[in-house]
Amino acid sequence: MWIQREIQLPTLSRGFHLVTRQVVEALPELARTRVGLLHVFIRHTSASLTINENADPDVPADLERALNATAPEDFPYVHTVEGPDDMPAHVKSVLIGSSVSLPVGNGKLMLGTWQGIYLAEHRDHATRRTLVLTLQGEAA
User: Residue 69 CA to chain centroid, in angstroms?
Assistant: First the structure.
């Protein structure tokens, strides 16, 4: 079985946002998948996807602070036409990545106890973001 679907997320503020629930809700076929793989891809270059701890709100806040220190807005970038947060957003996207792949087993994502899928929004004034979800697997 192969299923591919696009979902649009609402405009999100800068930072890390759990999107696990939206991804799972968009794929009711997941519940009927005995074994498989879910690939989640973001169709943008100034936001990214990652899997990280979903229990302590300090984790996404610290990740945001660390990325801001790694790719500061006051660095002498050449690409500046789209604003001071644009090029640092591209750098952060390169560091984190544009997709995640997750194993599926017995109708659910096989995430660890404290893991969740995060959309990392790197822009101050972002637009809605689109995710492409591709589920492949064997139905139960």
Answer: 20
Find out whether 37 and 105 touch, Cβ atoms under 8 Å: no
pLDDT at 12: 97
CATH of domain 2-139: 2.60.120.460
pLDDT in tens, 58-115: 999 999 999 999 999 999 999 999 999 999 999 999 999 999 999 999 999 999 999 9
Centre a 10 Å sphere on the Cβ of residue 75 and count the other Cβ atoms it contains: 11
User: Within 13 A of 125's CA, how many CA atoms are on the CB side?
Assistant: 3
| Main-chain phi, psi angles of 90, to 5 degrees | -65, -40
Q: Is 50 exposed, middle or buried (0-12, 13-18, 19+ CB in 10 A)?
A: middle
